[in-house]
């Protein structure tokens, strides 16, 4: 098949069967093809009139943004805890029920620990402890501790 004969439908058909069990590799493979096709369609010596990849793949996975603030982390931990608490393992899906139970417990412990740290920082600030001293205990500088927890304990 010549490069000029490749159509957007050909790309879509190829993409639909490409590495369904490896979404990251699938995305990287498509990005590489898209780069090659874009390069072949630009410049004075373009090999094709336009890239058949220009519209991009039709199926775009949903991306979760990483929680950054303490509130976002606590909210995310609660959401994960609820998901794990509500999850009932299906013997046919290949997940080990013991591992799922351990994950449930770990997520709940993490959520509880975040709340415990926040409560301890509130108590430390109420007792007059400096942000510098708090930073030492939480493993950051005083300024980083103040930026992360300051508005939560005010």
Rg, Cα atoms, Å:
25 Å
**Residue share in β-strands:** under 5%
Query: What class would the helix/strand composition place it in?
Result: mainly alpha
Oligomer: single chain
Backbone shape: elongated
Uncertain runs: none
Straight-line N-to-C gap: 67 Å
What is the number of helices? Answer: 6
Largest sheet: none
Written as H for each helix and E for each strand, in order along the chain, the element string is HHHHHH
* Number of domain units: 2
Overall mean pLDDT score? 83
Helix content: 55-70%
**Strand segment tally:** 0
Brief descriptors of the model:
62% helix; 2 domains; 154 residues; 6 helices; mainly alpha
Brief overview, please?
The mean pLDDT is 83. It contains six helices and no strands. Helices cover 62% and strands 0% of the residues.
Describe this structure as you would to a colleague.
62% of the residues lie in helices and 0% in strands. It has 154 residues and is mainly α. It has two domains: 1-62; 70-153, no CATH class. The model has no long low-confidence stretch (mean pLDDT 83).
């Amino acid at each position: 098949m010549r490069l000029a004969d490749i159509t957007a439908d050909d790309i879509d058909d190829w993409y639909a069967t490409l590495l369904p069990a490896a979404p990251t590799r699938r995305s990287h493979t498509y990005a590489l093809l898209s780069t090659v096709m874009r390069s072949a369609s630009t410049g004075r010596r373009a090999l094709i009139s336009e890239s058949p990849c220009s519209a991009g793949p039709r199926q775009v996975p949903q991306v979760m943004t990483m929680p950054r603030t303490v509130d976002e982390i606590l909210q995310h931990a609660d959401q994960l805890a609820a998901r794990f608490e509500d999850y009932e393992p299906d013997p046919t899906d290949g997940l080990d029920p013991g591992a799922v139970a351990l994950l449930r417990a770990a997520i709940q412990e993490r959520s509880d620990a975040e709340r415990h740290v926040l409560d301890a920082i509130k108590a430390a600030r109420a007792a007059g402890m400096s942000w510098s001293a708090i930073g030492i205990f939480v493993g950051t500088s005083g300024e980083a501790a103040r930026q992360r927890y300051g508005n939560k304990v005010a």
